[in-house]
Design goal:
The protein is mainly α. The protein is 58% helix and 6% strand. The chain is built from 6 helices and 3 strands, in the order H-H-H-H-E-H-E-E-H. The chain has helices spanning 9-22, 27-39, 50-83, 88-127, 143-148, 188-191, and strands spanning 130-134, 152-154, 174-176. It has a 3-stranded antiparallel β-sheet. It is elongated and about 65 Å long. Bound molecules: zinc ion. The site of zinc ion (ZN) has 6 residues, from loops.
């Protein structure tokens, strides 16, 4: 199933309830998790360039993983509420508010990765598929970013540390002209 196309909560619920039940996630919890996930607009389709296509796929996977994790958390909350004879309606409201908060952070990370991928694709249009990694040199630069500086990567193969700008929160690295003779950064595909 592709999460991110225009589907309604009830359609998705009918399609997924049995699968999620097998994973220990109740229908009520799944309905809650779906309404959180589907309330945000999906990634824009028509990702241009190899980096954006890779990140689009990753974002779909992350969204599916969030749905499972949220379903499990809400199921646990409802189960605990029942065992203490609490009002499950209130518990569900609180759980949904928490999941909306988590999902907003998740969406921010998704947007950040998509923007970094768009920058890589722009660089690839200017310089070709081999891209150089650049970083700011000051006291705040992390060892990972410093080690990546001066190396190259292929636009369609995200480095293990992510694309420039996503190596860690507030990463200030950027993609640019390939470094002549620069070593290739390790990528997930190389590791596999
Ligand atoms: Zn960095």
């Amino acid at each position: 199933m592709v999460i991110g196309t225009a589907i309604t909560v009830s359609t998705a619920l009918d399609a997924l309830a049995a699968l999620f039940a097998a994973a220990g996630i109740t229908r009520a919890a799944l309905r809650g998790a779906l309404s959180v996930v589907l309330a945000f607009p999906p990634d824009p389709l028509g990702a241009h360039g190899p980096a954006q296509r890779r990140i689009f796929t990753l974002n779909v996977v992350r969204r599916a993983q969030f749905l499972v994790a949220a379903g499990r958390r809400i199921t646990a909350d409802l189960t605990a509420a029942r065992s203490h004879s609490e009002n499950t309606g209130n518990v569900l409201d609180l759980a949904m508010a928490r999941e909306r908060r988590y999902y907003a952070q998740h969406i921010a990370a998704i947007s950040h990765r998509s923007l970094a991928a768009a920058r890589v694709d722009s660089a690839a249009m200017m310089y070709g598929p081999l891209i150089g990694w650049y970083t700011v040199h000051d006291a705040h630069t992390t060892p990972d970013c410093l080690a990546a500086d001066g190396k190259n990567f292929w636009a369609g193969q995200p480095p293990l540390i992510g694309y420039p700008g996503t190596a860690h929160p507030r990463c200030r690295c950027w993609p640019g002209r390939p470094h002549p003779g620069g070593k290739l950064l390790a990528s997930a595909r190389m590791a596999a």
